[in-house]
Amino acid sequence: MAKTKPGRKDLDSYTIRGTNKVVRPGDCVLMRPSESDKPPYVARVEKIEADHRNNVKVRVRWYYRPEESAGGRRQFHGAKELFLSDHYDVQSAHTIEGKCVVHTFKNYTKLENVGAEDYFYRFEYKAATGGFTPDGVAVYCKCEMPYNPDDLMVQCEGCKDWFHPSCMGMTIEDAKKLDRFLCSDCSPNEHANRSLNHFPVSPSIETKVEPKRRKR
Ligand SMILES: [Zn+2]
Ligand SMILES: [Zn+2]
């Protein structure tokens, strides 16, 4: 079976209408949604082709926003988070409104400035089942949540885990002023408090010994 249907030809690029922005296979694009009050769809262009009338079509692989997934948006999802779906489509190239960049999670967290066109993904999403790959990610803090790159976290110098200031009873302003941070498990003060708390249920040697002396 021929890969290209008769009368169609593959294109190396497409220039977005009314702009000088050039889209090539592999690029990520914003596409006009069917309802104008919705945010643009995000897709990765797999292939660009023109038919015999020179209508340009793009084969795309959709990125889903958390809201569009079966599980919906969760607390740890970032504002710019997308899921790379297994849902492909062919669309008219005219629906492309602009280009964007979908970073890996790691690269996104290293960006100095996040622009309007910057997104990230860390999960692949199966549109039919609502399943994610990977199905688990590292969790942090007392609340044991995956990292939301929109939320400030502070790293403990002791255990190297990361914590939300709010989960540690601090404001974000407090956390930003800290030179160093020790979580409650690693903080020496907390250890002192804890041993005091434990005092009544684990008596010191003195209290054990004294009654024996009195018996003699
Ligand atoms: Zn937390
Ligand atoms: Zn710690």
TrEMBL record:
Domain (PHD-type): residue spans on this chain: 138-189
Gene Ontology molecular-function annotations: zinc ion binding
Domain BAH residue range list: 21-136
Pfam families: BAH, PHD
Protein localization: Nucleus
Top-level taxon of origin: Eukaryota
GO cellular component terms given for this protein: nucleus
UniProt keyword annotations, A-Z: Metal-binding, Nucleus, Transcription, Transcription regulation, Zinc, Zinc-finger
Family to which the UniProt record says this protein belongs: Belongs to the SHL1/EBS protein family.
Protein name: Chromatin remodeling protein EBS-like
